[in-house]
Amino acid sequence: MIATEIAILAAEPSGNINTEGIVTFFASNIAPILLAVLGVIFIGRASRGEISKVLTSSAIAIVGLAFIAGAATLFFVGESIIDLIFN
Fold this sequence. Notes:
Distance between the termini: 46 Å
Largest sheet: none
Mean pLDDT: 78
Structural class: mainly alpha
């Protein structure tokens, strides 16, 4: 009885996860909202005269966006790169 329960628990999942849809959702909905929030924060700081903090934060945000863009590029181009290396 325990062996059949283990076999049932270890069965192959029947559905697939739409990872491309999830990535598209984040890229089209979540990222613009986060960028808008960053913009409001930067404008608020700049209006108070904290220009150096705004420039530092902006540089950090740009570097972060570059890392995200690099990760997205590897996500979409990664399979082609792997095929080039290993074939």
